[in-house]
Automatic annotation (TrEMBL):
It holds the Pfam family AsnC_trans_reg2. This is siroheme decarboxylase. The keyword Lyase applies. InterPro entries: AsnC_trans_reg2, HTH-Siroheme_Decarb, NirdL-like_HTH, Tscrpt_reg_AsnC-like, WH-like_DNA-bd_sf, WH_DNA-bd_sf. It comes from Candidatus Accumulibacter aalborgensis. Keywords: Lyase. It is an enzyme of class 4 (lyase). It comes from the Bacteria.
Length: 326
């Protein structure tokens, strides 16, 4: 019973606001009233079970490197083979089958726009099918944290749209090495930041200082326990897309972003005539009927019925891993 409570607290309470100090797991243990060894043991068990992807940083899109959402229309009998070919590229970190003519959807990330373009060209050649490239234009809410008890307050996204976009600056050598180390997640040791510092070739204080600064600047969106939603019971998820006039897409996007159950919300470009939709959001739930009902309720209450839309439920998860910028 104690382990069940500890499992839940670690999964639910520390997806953000993780202690950035020399002995973070000892700090977690103090807050939870258990031994540091128990925290490390449970986190390692959750990682082996697939419920925790890693403990570490989630970088904000468009703040370092380059990334894009992409989609392919693949004949159903070829889908598994094409997905396998796409998965071989380290730039691909998420790859899903969805219900649509465009049935293969993946996210590709690279250290620069040039490297991303090169990777996408190689992916097209390996897969044998053209792709839609749908880069992020405007973020309204990107979090993918899950309140497992339903009581957690959703981080407010209201200020995001009003922030001026700052183009990513090239990483210096220290930053590149630190990003590489962070991509793997924190090592589950007593002094994890000291281990990272030895890998990067600097002092622990420099690592902690740079991570804190990146958090303050919004380059790191959150630092904490990164959970896998499917393994936690959120087995139904749908990408809801709308074709909204450009002059109102921001207002509608912000309204959607504030809604409970909307884990992602952003504007991406239309690609006419194949893809007419410009406003995307993701809704996760425990069952398909639950997600469908939530979408119907949202569309009715927010008066979205006049806008063309599509609902793309996820069918197969081919790949899910952390983004690799370096």
């Amino acid at each position: 019973m104690i382990d069940e409570v500890l499992d839940f607290r670690l999964l639910n309470d520390f997806q953000r606001d993780f202690p950035l100090c020399s002995a973070p797991f000892a700090e977690l243990a103090t807050r939870l009233g258990v031994a540091e060894s128990a925290v490390l043991r449970v986190l390692e068990a959750l990682r082996r079970e697939g419920k925790v992807a890693r403990v570490g940083a989630v970088f904000a899109p468009k703040r370092i490197g380059a990334s894009t959402l992409a989609a392919m229309a693949v004949p159903p009998d070829k889908l598994a083979g094409v997905a396998e070919a796409v998965n071989r590229f380290p730039e691909v970190n998420h790859n899903y089958e969805r219900e649509h003519r465009y049935n293969l959807w993946f996210v590709a990330t690279a250290g620069s726009e040039g490297r991303l373009q090169a990777a996408l060209g190689a992916i097209v050649q390996a897969a044998g099918y053209p792709l839609l490239r749908l880069p992020l234009l405007q973020e309204y809410h990107i979090d993918l944290g899950f309140s497992l008890d339903g009581k957690g307050e959703k981080p407010t996204p209201s200020r995001v749209r009003r922030q001026a976009f700052v183009p990513p600056k090239p990483l210096d050598e220290f930053e590149r090495r630190l990003v590489m180390a962070l991509q793997e997640g924190l090592p589950l040791f007593i002094r994890p930041f000291s281990v990272l510092a030895s890998r990067v070739g600097c002092d622990e204080s420099e690592v902690l200082g740079r991570i804190r600064r990146w958090c303050d600047e919004g380059i790191i969106k959150r630092f904490g326990v990164i959970v896998r939603h499917h393994e936690l019971g959120y087995t139904a998820n749908a990408m809801l897309v709308h074709d909204v006039p450009d002059e109102v897409v921001g207002d509608i996007g912000e309204r959607l972003a504030r809604e409970a159950g909307v884990s992602l919300c952003y504007q991406r470009p239309r690609v006419e005539p194949d893809w007419p939709y410009n406003l995307f959001c993701m809704i996760h739930g425990h069952a398909r009927a639950e997600v469908g009902a939530r979408i119907a309720e949202l569309r009715a209450r927010l008066h979205l019925g006049d806008y063309a839309h599509a609902i793309l439920f996820s069918l197969t998860r081919f790949k899910q891993s952390g983004a690799r910028y370096a």
